[in-house]
Amino acid sequence: xxxxxxxxxxxxxxxxxxxxxHMDVLARAAKIFDHVTVTVMxxxxxxxxxxxxxxxxxxxxxxxxxxxxxxxxDSFGGLLVDYMxxxxxxxxxxxxxxxxxxxxxxxxxxxxxQLGEVETVFIMAATRWSFVSSSMAREIASYQGDISSxxxxxxxxxxxxxxxxxLNPAAPE
Length: 173
Prior knowledge:
- Substrate binds at residues 14, 46, 80, 94.
- It is found in: Cytoplasm.
- GO terms for molecular function: ATP binding; pantetheine-phosphate adenylyltransferase activity.
- Its EC number is 2.7.7.3.
- By secondary structure, this protein is an alpha/beta fold.
- The chain has a single domain (8-166), classed as 3-Layer(aba) Sandwich (Rossmann fold), CATH 3.40.50.620.
- The chain contains 6 helices and 5 strands, in the order E-H-E-H-E-H-E-H-E-H-H.
- The chain has a 5-stranded parallel beta sheet, with helices on both faces.
- Helix 2 (54-65) links the parallel strand 2 and strand 3 (71-76).
């Protein structure tokens, strides 16, 4: 059994939408840290590049994480290190699926450490989730494929609703 480090952590990402891989990393982080804040990082320059709006992503996250008592949901539109300072938090949690993720995440961790004196803790996603990504789930859902094993129920329902208009076009008048 893991024991809490009496620290709070931030699990940042775009979560467009949250996947079971994210949930795996989050649930395991919630066992290690006293509190984990899932933070949707949004960038005004990337507006329109996400399938879900910021509010939709926050709603999906709240529903998907409601069973985790020491997890909360937030958003921020600037540098992660600025958010960490404002929230008085020093630990970033990042999930890794493969070695290719590590190379990118290592660079970001070093930058964050230099800019804001924050530490990054990497948690390897369980092997069964190593192939799952938000973009893959969106792609499969867009063709009405079954994504129920890849994403939490809240994400699956949101994806179904998002792509439903394509399935049921309005009848011509």
